[in-house]
Design goal:
InterPro entries: MazG-like_dom
Structural class: mainly alpha
CATH architecture: Orthogonal Bundle
CATH topology: Helix Hairpins
Number of helices: 5
CATH superfamily: MazG-like
Strand order of the largest sheet: 1-2
Pfam family, one: MazG
Helix content: 55-70%
Protein name: MazG-like family protein
Strand content: 5-15%
Number of strands: 2
CATH class: Mainly Alpha
Largest sheet: 2 strands, antiparallel
Distance between the termini: 43 Å
Radius of gyration: 16 Å
Length: 106
Amino acid sequence: MTNIDQLIKSVEQWSIDKDLHKGNPDRQALKFYEEAGEVGAALSRNKLDDLKDGIGDTVVTLIILAQQHGMTLEECLQYAYDEISKRKGRTINSTFIKESDLNGNS
């Protein structure tokens, strides 16, 4: 089985091979939204194979979007984790709500 680091590097190389790494990030963001919509469609239809494909395709679009901005998926994920790891709040109806949102603050 391939590990996540190898997969990310493979996607980055595929992006370079297809000359997407220098593409228009706005177009890549639109591709992300399209793939995210497929995730929603798969969930609504309870199609697990389509869900797996949609999640994978969504991650691919994010890897390329990060690459287009001189970033890596790892550093973006680390940045996000550093933020969420400090958050306080509550889970309500299976959704985590930040403390500041519970209190009505921004």
